[in-house]
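Bug #77: duplicate submission created two jobs. Keeping one. Sequence:
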Amino acid sequence: MNNIAQKLAETGKWHINTAMLSERADHKCEYCGLDFFESVSNYKSFQIDHIIPTSSGGSNDNENKAVSCKTCNMDLKSRWNPATVCDSKDRKKLIEAVKKYVKSREDFYEEEILQMKNIVNGEIK
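Kept job's structure:
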């Protein structure tokens, strides 16, 4: 156990396993890079995601867990299973597949937002 994870756990705010997972991810969302210690909003969005959802047969061990922000975990990735597009069980490759999927979902919502802005601004009738 490393010193930073131990100190985080000693605050009583973090479980030691959560602290170790966060340390492994450099305290950032493993899908979009959001820094959890940059703001209260970021800190409060901290979650642990099962890379391969347990509902799809993913394990509950740390190799199948990723530190994620709420937006990536719940709103963009949700229950999507990267094993459907990635032949490898390698954690890094699975996370790369999730990053691509999350980016594609962000792009989809960016287009939707633009459409809504255009309606609100009276540019589409």
